[in-house]
């Protein structure tokens, strides 16, 4: 399985979390792929550069260099879409009018706090809308492959990268499992691989618990 296939599988799983009528912001990386899997749902996609009503991914014939999202990727517009300046866009986010933010992550700790905008000693363009989305969205979903190319877990006991905000995420969707967080503990809501939870705990270096057992 290629890494690209894994990214699409994560995006497809996240699309299942979205509901009719929600205003959703898709962040950089894997989140931008979610749009391809939103089917039979009326979801309003928002881009912080000033667009509400992003349509399906464009075909070659639909490419318009002036029509892009905040990640500078080409998009289409849905019927009834609206354009506005970035100040109004961030007012929507900070005012709690975004139902779901889907954010790519570099690290997430056992409390659910994330780091997703800077790597120490590497040049960056800036935090963008990450801090505003973490605080302002009603629900935050993290999207990431569980391990780096070097084999290090992105799910860690303590963040070593700059934090994106004190708000914790509601869900982390990875290629291995779906995780949630509560009182400093990490729960597995769903697992995608043939691996006992004890083995996955050992591989990550964090004790995991089944969410369904806790709920009962």
Give a verbal description of the structure.
The chain is of the alpha/beta class. 19% of the residues lie in helices and 25% in strands. It has 5 helices and 13 strands. The strands form 2 sheets. Strands 4-3-2-1-5-8-10-11-12-13 form a 10-stranded mixed sheet. The chain has a 3-stranded mixed sheet with strand order 7-6-9, with no helix packed on it. Helix 2 (86-94) packs parallel to helix 3 (130-136). The radius of gyration is 17 Å and the shape is globular. The chain starts with a helix and ends with a helix. The model has no long low-confidence stretch (mean pLDDT 93).
Task: Describe how the helices and strands are arranged.
Blueprint: H1 3-15, E1 23-26, E2 44-47, E3 51-54, E4 77-83, H2 86-94, E5 100-104, E6 107-109, E7 114-115, H3 130-136, E8 139-143, E9 155-156, E10 171-173, E11 177-182, E12 185-191, H4 197-204, E13 208-210, H5 211-215
Helix pairs in contact: 2-3
Organism: Lysinibacillus halotolerans
Protein name: 3-oxoacid CoA-transferase subunit B
Family: Belongs to the 3-oxoacid CoA-transferase subunit B family.
List keywords for this structure.
about 220 residues; alpha/beta; Glutaconate Coenzyme A-transferase; 10-stranded mixed beta sheet; 3-stranded mixed beta sheet; 5 helices
């Amino acid at each position: 399985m290629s890494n690209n296939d894994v990214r699409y599988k994560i995006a497809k799983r996240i699309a299942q979390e979205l509901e009719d009528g929600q205003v959703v912001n898709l962040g950089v990386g894997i989140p931008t792929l979610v749009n391809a899997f939103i089917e039979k749902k009326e979801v309003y996609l928002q881009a912080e550069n000033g667009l509400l009503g992003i349509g399906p991914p464009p075909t070659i014939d639909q490419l318009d260099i002036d029509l892009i999202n905040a990640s500078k990727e080409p998009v289409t517009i849905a019927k009834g879409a609206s354009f506005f300046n970035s100040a109004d866009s961030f007012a929507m986010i900070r005012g709690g009018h975004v139902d779901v933010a889907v954010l790519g992550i570099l690290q997430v700790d056992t409390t659910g706090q994330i780091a997703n905008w800077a790597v120490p000693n590497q040049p960056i363009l800036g935090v963008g809308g990450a801090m505003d989305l973490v605080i302002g969205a009603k629900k935050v979903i993290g999207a990431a492959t569980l391990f780096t190319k070097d084999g290090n877990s992105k799910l860690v006991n303590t963040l070593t990268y700059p934090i994106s905000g004190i708000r914790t995420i509601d869900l982390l969707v990875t290629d291995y499992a779906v995780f949630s967080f509560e009182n400093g503990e990490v729960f597995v809501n769903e697992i995608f691989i043939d691996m006992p939870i004890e083995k996955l705990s050992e591989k990550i270096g964090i004790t995991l618990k089944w969410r369904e057992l806790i709920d009962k």
